[in-house]
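Amino acids appear as letters; backbone shape is given numerically. Here is one record.
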Amino acid sequence: MLRIIFYIGKAMKKNPKLAASVCPVCKIKLDAALEASRADETIQPRPDDYTVCAYCASFLVYETDMSLRVLTQDEVGDMPSDVRSVLTQARKCAGEFRDSRGLPDYN
């Protein structure tokens, strides 16, 4: 089952089981995750789950060791259009999250 995770840091609702990670693009510590389809619930990500950094809006994927890796342009281009659409919407939400907190644009 495809899961797309919205990965955020300094969240009001932290998942105590989620190890902090650093976004490989903007280098901000990320320590909370919300499932895109149920944004009110914290979840435990799994390998191969997609995510979008809430700060720089990079498309990322969890590796088998649960580190984060930037998706290549080819990987994004090869995704089914509905998956790409959800990630694009999550990227838009990341921009709104960043703007609502007065954070700089890391792109």
Notes: DSSP finds two helices and eight strands in the chain. The chain has one domain: 4-100. The longest helix spans residues 81-100.
